[in-house]
Amino acid sequence: MKHIIKNIALGAALLPVAAVAQTEKEYTDSVASQVNVAFRTVNEADLMGGVSTVNMIEQAKKDYTTYSLDGMDALVGGYNGQLWNQGEALVLVDGVPRDANNVLPTEIEQITFLKAASAVVLYGSRAAKGVILITTKHGRNDGLNVSVRGNASLYVPKSYPKYLGSAAYMELYNEALQNDGKAAVYSEDDIYHYASNENPYRYPNINFFDSQYIKKTYQRYDGTAEFSGGGRLAHFYANIGLSNVGSLMNFGEGKNNHTTRLNVRGNIDLRLNDWIDGYVNANATFYDARNDNSNFWSESATMRPTSQYPLVPFIPISYVEEADAVTLKTIQNSNYIIDGKYFLGGTQSQQTNPFAAMYAAGYNKYTSRQMQFDMGMNFDLNSLVKGLKLKTKFAVDYHTQYNTSINNEYAVYEAKWNNYSGQDLITSITKYGTDKRTGTQNLSNSHDKQFILMQAQLDYDRSFGDHNLNATLLAHGYQISEDGKYHRTSNANLGLQLAYNYAHTYYADLSMAAIHSAKLAEGHREAISPVVSLGWRLKNESFLRNVKAVDDLKLTASYGIINQDLDIEKYYMYDYVFTATGTWWGWNEVANSMQTSDSQQGSNYNLGFIKRKEFRAGLTGSLWEGALKFDANFFTTSTNGLLTTASTIYPSYFQTYWPVSTFLANTNYNNQRRTGVDLTLNVHQKFGEFDTNFGVSAMYYTSKNTKWDENVEYDWLKAEGQSIEAMRGYECLGFFKDADDVANSAKINNNTKPGDLKYKDQNGDGIIDSKDQVVIGKWTAPFQMGVHFTVKYKDFTLFAQGSGTFGGNGLKNGKDTWVYGDGKYSDVVLNRWTPETASTATYPRLTTESGDLNFVASDFWKYSTSAFRLNKVQLTYDLPQSIFAGDSFVKGVSVYVSGSNLLTIAKERKYMELNVGTAPQTRMYNLGVKVNL
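Structure tokens predicted for TonB-dependent receptor plug domain-containing protein:
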């Protein structure tokens, strides 16, 4: 606590001369007309392109969500979780780097997507892949406004993996053994007993997704209260929210699984006098997640319905012979008798299992606490220099997380069965393990993070007739300290922006940042990142001024270079690295042996920044009195100087393979290029009492490795010239038909048999290996789109939203599809290759061997990820205001119902909606109410 107080006091003391500040929003009556961009707020009409914004106050009236960026791909062109597919964007909450999942949609006023280099350059190196700027709500009204909101949500699983039962598994496993030339382990008599289901405790058929273990649905509840108001000198906003989410588990500790989140946010804006104002923002989030220790979902993908030594999770005591006092006493001494009827089953090879663990292994609790604080002061220096302002900011965040757990040990029992006159009875049991409840709460995975930001800026904003000038000089820096990491994550830069426009018609902007990075050697740690932007409002020209159909039309373009160290993975990549690896020569005595330090990395003290070189051109406009609005951008971004140990430019003797040693140094060598077009379009039209709005967002994108360090034997192995997202694998020619086909064809190894996959021998050397892998698809879809539709009729509002991706590929390589060894069988193996089904088979022969023949990347397993998803439908009803006339305590009520993740239209829908080894995907149905007081 003393460190927190010290840092806050330090920040307050330095505010007047601190090193940086993001321009805070100067509130107007219309949030939509003002857009928060880097370190300032501008009128939407004066944006220079590569920027998209979403008014979350309006969006929240018709779209209930629980995640700040949910559904944004349907509202913003060029966003698909990344901005222009560049990688992870920097998320700023009120100008401070913070997690997007720690601010709720109800707390947000506006989200700005800064895509272009011109929009992000002032933030420095760490913003080089785009910025998502989230601005929280502030009080803007006099008096007191209060609103409360409550939601009840129902989550319904879409599907579960379809695993085969015990009898089918036993038959197919025997077949796999036979395919591998091995003896069967399950007799026909065994299979008969399992298939008859005559005694599920002696002949188990374990189904993880049975209703006795899994509920049909689970629920989420949340409540939020918002307060805002103020007077002439101060305004405030507060948000208090509480949510609780259950789980699907229906037994044992799983019944108590839940996640609880409490958040408290407060924002205060103060006017101290005519030339000084300030603000204080604070947020606290308390997050707790309680879970069982069973690993139930991951085990569901691997634990077979039975085995050679069958595991029975729960065995009824009633099956023990009444005269067997020894066995009964052993069982009754157990700490874990389930419902007074069952004891925990196991085997010598499986002394733990997720079912027993659900009851007996205890539980764990994940705890996270986040405290966030930022404050600033703004000084109007108009009395000194007209149009001059000084703005300052200080922020400090603390995040701590840890796990506490109760870890119990438990005994399991293996039953020996006999049949007396047609009745199965347990004649003896074998105990494995010991019951042990320690009562000790264990602490693990503790992690602490501290964030400190300081910034200051001078703004000059003047108009001289038709000449409008804006200049900003700023200093900006922050550090993130995390336990277990020696180096802090840092960002420090100076920024300069000079923006000019003539009569809001001709625009010119020069923005640059001077950056610093400790990841590089001295003498190479500083760089300048310049971006130039131009704009032309065509609407103000004589040839369009009197065209009534055109409300506004503006053309913009920018070019710039941003230096960044985001793609420099760690520190000291420029320096030598030596390790003692125990080779047989040397001069260093370690453990009575002679050793030397092997070189693992050479030095390159000239290592420099990676450069983002970007050209962008954009067109924005409004037609027919706002009936049609559009924003389109063409961009081409080159990422030059990506690091690699460029073996092609160093002699071969710079590295050895045994002992492993290398003097190859990291160099700025590899280059990539991304080119694309994004579009955001909205159509607004009224038809009588129907007020409609239809929107489309889209992006088409291509990429290429334009320069790549490689030394490959064949052209098809080259990365250079190929897509950054290229998917590589073998070209499959079908199945090997028979022994002659195997003998006369190229193959991976001599274990190949009929029914294995046959691959094309690209280089004709008679062997299938990595040299035969080619590009078989793209991991990332080149075309993405989103649509949203709103129709208002009287007091009803219907909102729908969908998104789609087209042209991408994936591999069916999950545990339910790549089945080999002693893996669990799903229904995909039913159409396996056998001599009888050779002409119709869609799956390779079964095998108990490793998967290196069939279960490797090839176009046999490739599938199209093209899909369109109906993400949201919500119907909102606002009760008529006439109900609340007069001195009513309630000023307004909205009731809404919604559904999320409702529909997927895709060729591979079933596979894409299936989760294996994790909790299932779900559809969500919600009922909510908001009351304004």
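Residues 1-30, 584-588 have pLDDT under 50 and may be disordered.
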